[in-house]
């Protein structure tokens, strides 16, 4: 790990675990802004960036793609390439570093990653309001018009959870204005949501889907058991082999990803429109002309 707290930048080999990185950051009271999920102690920064996953704080501080500053990778020709850098302002050229985030290693094998980091908020507090999912969206729309320091907002199990982060005075005044009850076990709740370990995510016998849509999408269009990112990320389950969420997400102007499925059922990713698919193939061919890396992981036609 190469880390200078005053620069708010951390560079690490892709195999470095999130546990190591967060331990290092915590000593300087800093954090990864996108609150990455982890599925065990061996979860790595390379895995997080390759999958492009972001946690509840994404709605407030941006996604994994927003936080990456640069990467090193080995492409399909065996070339060890560097994209981006280790500075906040990095806008030169075509941003392959961001394009690599969420590409599941199909453009190259990530070997090193530079990300921006931020200070840990002075205070965090979670308010809980009992309401329906539709009422929760209405509440969040009203709250969004106010300068409240909301860092996460999720509805699950008949309740809306709103996390406030920032200066103590701002958090306390916002909590009074929002109302509800203060949730004392908030840290465990948000980590369970982030890592999908909450009991509601146990989709035994069913397929688990994440639907990304506009936060204001009406709740009656999706039978979601949970939403995160203030409504921008909805979670649903279906019977096995039911691929209708792809069509539903497209109709709503979003996209679907199947998290729990049979491996034989394809990539689990939203089918791309023809124009976007052609662009993806062109980038893939430039980085991996012989189709050697993670074949068929995102583009089934690459088989």
What is the H/E string?
A: EEHEHHHEEHEEEHEEHEHEEEHEH
Derived from helix and strand composition plus strand pairing, the structural class reads alpha+beta
Mean pLDDT: 91
* CATH fold node name of the largest domain: Uridine Diphospho-n-acetylenolpyruvylglucosamine Reductase, domain 3
Overview of this structure, please?
It is a single chain. The chain has 303 residues and is α+β, with helices and mostly antiparallel strands. The protein has ten helices and 15 strands. The longest helix is centred in the C-terminal third of the chain and has 14 residues, at 274-287. The mean pLDDT is 91.
Quick recap:
The chain is α+β, with helices and mostly antiparallel strands. Helices cover 27% and strands 26% of the residues.
List the helices and strands and how they pair.
Elements: E1 2-4, E2 9-13, H1 18-26, E3 30-31, H2 45-51, H3 58-61, H4 64-67, E4 68-74, E5 80-84, H5 96-100, E6 109-116, E7 118-119, E8 123-130, H6 133-144, E9 150-156, E10 159-166, H7 168-178, E11 181-182, H8 186-194, E12 207-212, E13 226-228, E14 233-238, H9 244-251, E15 255-260, H10 274-287
Antiparallel strand pairs: 1-2, 2-6, 3-7, 4-5, 4-6, 8-10, 8-11, 9-10, 9-13, 12-14, 12-15, 13-14
């Amino acid at each position: 790990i190469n880390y200078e707290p005053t620069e708010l930048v951390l560079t690490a080999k892709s195999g470095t675990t999130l546990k190591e990185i967060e331990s290092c950051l915590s000593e300087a009271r800093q954090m990864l802004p996108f609150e990455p999920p982890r599925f065990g102690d061996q979860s790595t920064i390379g895995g997080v960036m390759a999958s492009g996953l972001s946690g509840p704080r994404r709605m407030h501080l941006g996604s994994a793609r927003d936080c990456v500053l640069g990467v090193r990778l080995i492409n399909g020709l065996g070339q060890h390439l560097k994209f981006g850098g280790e500075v906040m302002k990095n806008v030169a050229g075509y941003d392959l570093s961001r394009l690599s985030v969420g590409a599941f290693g199909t453009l190259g094998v990530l070997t090193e990653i530079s990300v921006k980091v931020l200070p840990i908020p002075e205070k965090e507090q979670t308010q809980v309001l009992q309401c329906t999912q539709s009422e929760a969206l209405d509440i969040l729309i009203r709250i969004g018009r106010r300068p409240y320091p909301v860092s996460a907002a999720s509805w699950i199990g008949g309740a809306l959870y709103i996390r406030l982060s920032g200066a103590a005075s701002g958090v306390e005044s916002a909590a009074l204005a929002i109302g509800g009850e203060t949730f004392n076990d908030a840290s465990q709740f948000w980590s369970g949501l982030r890592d999908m370990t909450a009991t509601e995510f146990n989709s035994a016998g069913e397929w688990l889907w994440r639907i990304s849509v506009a936060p204001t999408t009406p709740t009656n269009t999706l039978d979601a058991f949970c939403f995160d990112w203030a409504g921008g990320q909805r979670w649903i389950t279906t019977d096995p082999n039911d691929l209708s969420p792809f069509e539903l997400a497209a109709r709503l102007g979003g996209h679907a990803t199947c998290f729990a499925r049979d491996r034989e059922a394809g990539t689990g990713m939203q089918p791309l429109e023809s124009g976007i698919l052609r662009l993806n193939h062109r980038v893939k061919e430039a980085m991996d002309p012989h189709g050697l890396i993670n074949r068929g992981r995102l583009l089934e036609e690459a088989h």
